[in-house]
Amino acid sequence: MRTRYPKPPDVEIKNTVYMREETFLDLITPNVDTDSLVALIEKEGGIEAALYRLYPRLDFRTALANRLIIIDGDRPDVDSEEWAQIIEKFLLKIAFPIVVRGLVKRKR
To answer: CA 67, 25, 33, 95 torsion: positive or negative?
Structure first.
């Protein structure tokens, strides 16, 4: 997946993260079919409660270990575990809930 956006002039880019679109989708898509997802959300009483019982199709550390994700840069400023924590925080706190809500909305 390679989308380039202009960077703010005062921010130095040290690293670039590369992955295919399929990898990104696997990182943010729950490992459950949509009918089961809707049933779980109804059983748990809402998306927020159900999110803690859902897991993405692919774990960031697994993707990184299998070189589905490549981190490149002249001056890496964090190690792979720090990258895992940074990206998982983004994926699980922001992207994953958005995708779950979108799947449920589409099903209803």
So the answer is: positive
User: pLDDT per position in the chain (108 positions), as tens?
Assistant: 556 666 667 777 677 788 999 998 898 889 998 889 889 988 998 888 888 888 888 888 888 889 898 877 765 556 677 777 887 788 778 888 888 888 888 876
Q: Domain for residue 20, yes or no?
A: yes
Q: C-alpha angle with apex 103: 102 to 108, nearest 5 degrees?
A: 100
Angle, CA of 30, 79 and 12, to the nearest 5°: 95
DSSP string, 27-41: HHSBSS-HHHHHHHH
User: For the chain, what is the domain count?
Assistant: 1
Residue 86 lies in domain: 16-107
Q: For residue 3, is it within any domain?
A: no
